[in-house]
Amino acid sequence: MSQNEYLIPSRVVYNWDLKCYPVSNKAAAYLQDCPTLLDLKILNPRIYMAVDTMAQLQSLRIQLNLLRAYLFTCREPIIESLQKKVTPRDYLYEHVHQYSISDLYDISNGILAQQLQNVVEFARNHVINCWLCSQKGFICEICNNPKVIYPFDMGTTYRCGACNAVFHAECLNATKPCPKCERKRKRMDLPLLDVGCTDLSLDDAPTFSVNIN
């Protein structure tokens, strides 16, 4: 048996058991060097509803993923700054549900949530204050308030899952139809303009008489 005790990934994922247990030397070596990423959406998607800590992490991961789209279209130094803050765990902003074994330890002691919060604040401050990134916000077409809103401000905005348009949360939610999607649906429902058939059948084709004299 190993002299140290370890978190058991399956116990964390399925039972939210953050207690460390004695394991064999082989298991200890695996847990220390395991490169496998755990996809919680596949393994246990209900964990986000059952555990407040995971719900908070889920929100931070979504915000970071949305912010990444802004920063990765900005200047190279900004991209590098973001990467340095999470390297070598680039999956933290590339994916929303993946966690490593070492992340489980950082979840239990609160380190991961604090790290993600710091990165989100860094990225958000950049977007708000960057001339280029700040131009990529949205205007809520429900109230037409001229103040720009952003999808990563999840507490005050609602993002349509179909077209990604962003609205104030108080103006639109999942129970109401998205106006942008409604316009698209109506365009698709419009009948094609009947311009008539331009093809002529053989019976309709004109006949010509040819004078060979």
From the alpha carbons, calculate the radius of gyration and give it in angstroms. 28 Å
Low-confidence stretches: 194-213
Taking strands numbered 1, 2, ... along the chain, how are they ordered across the largest sheet?
1-2
Biggest pleated-sheet summary: 2 strands, antiparallel
Mean pLDDT: 88
Strand content: 5-15%
Domain Rubicon Homology: 1-188
GO molecular function: zinc ion binding
Organism: Apis cerana (Indian honeybee)
Keywords: Metal-binding, Repeat, Zinc, Zinc-finger
Could you explain the architecture of this structure?
Residues 1-188 form the Rubicon Homology domain. GO terms for molecular function: zinc ion binding. With 213 residues, this protein is mainly α. It folds into two domains: 32-135, no CATH class; 137-191, no CATH class. The protein has helices spanning 9-15, 25-33, 40-43, 47-50, 52-71, 76-86, 91-94, 101-108, 111-129, 179-189, and strands at residues 5-7, 20-22, 38-39, 98-99, 157-159, 166-168. The strands form three sheets. It has a two-stranded antiparallel ribbon. The radius of gyration is 28 Å and the shape is elongated. The protein starts with a strand and ends in a 24-residue tail after the last helix.
